[in-house]
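Is this the right way to post structure tokens for a design question? Let me know if I should format differently. Anyway, here goes:
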């Protein structure tokens, strides 16, 4: 309990704009979680993220904290944390950064030992949220397309291609076609 008090005082006294200030928040969060029941981990995480928002931590600091959490938290808590971050809009001042989605997808794939067929529904759900938040971002659609080319069926990739073209619009159509063709070639070469 004394260690928690020390960490709490340290998090309140540190300059939130300092590059490594988030490390104290991460340490406090991990301490609180590991000394409490797993059922309280989301509550602890929300408190930590709210404190970071209130104290105006840099976006990169919040991302670093989330990356750290995804290294030690169980899969269920990681999913809940991702959902909270994406759906509430209370963690970041602007839209959810692409790194949140990439980190969550990487965590799902790590849990499934790289087998996208095993975690397909969860990963697709993350990609759906990703392209919903970043619908005009070519890279978001390409990352989703890579997953479907590797682990999905023809129907899925065909629908995704149509949706990407529609979302990106005429101005990005040639860029999509070019990058998508490169992506398909890359995957075909890796399979050989």
């Amino acid at each position: 309990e004394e260690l928690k008090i020390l960490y709490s005082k340290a998090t309140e006294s540190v300059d939130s704009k300092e590059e490594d200030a988030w490390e104290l928040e991460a340490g406090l969060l991990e301490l609180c979680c590991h000394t409490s029941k797993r059922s309280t981990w989301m509550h602890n995480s929300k408190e930590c993220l709210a404190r970071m928002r209130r104290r105006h931590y840099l976006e990169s600091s919040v991302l670093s904290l989330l990356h750290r959490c995804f290294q030690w938290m169980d899969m269920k808590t990681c999913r809940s944390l991702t959902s909270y971050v994406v759906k509430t809009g209370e963690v970041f001042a602007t839209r959810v950064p692409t790194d949140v989605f990439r980190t969550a997808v990487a965590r799902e794939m790590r849990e499934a030992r790289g087998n996208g067929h095993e975690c397909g529904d969860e990963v697709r759900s993350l990609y759906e949220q990703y392209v919903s938040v970043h619908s005009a971002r070519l890279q978001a659609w390409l990352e989703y397309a890579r997953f479907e080319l590797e682990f999905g069926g023809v129907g899925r990739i065909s629908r995704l291609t149509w949706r990407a073209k529609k979302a990106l619009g005429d101005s990005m159509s040639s860029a999509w076609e070019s990058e998508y063709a490169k992506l398909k070639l890359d995957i075909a070469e890796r399979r050989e």
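Format looks fine. Someone answered above. Worth noting: The chain has ten helices and no strands. The chain has a mean pLDDT of 95.
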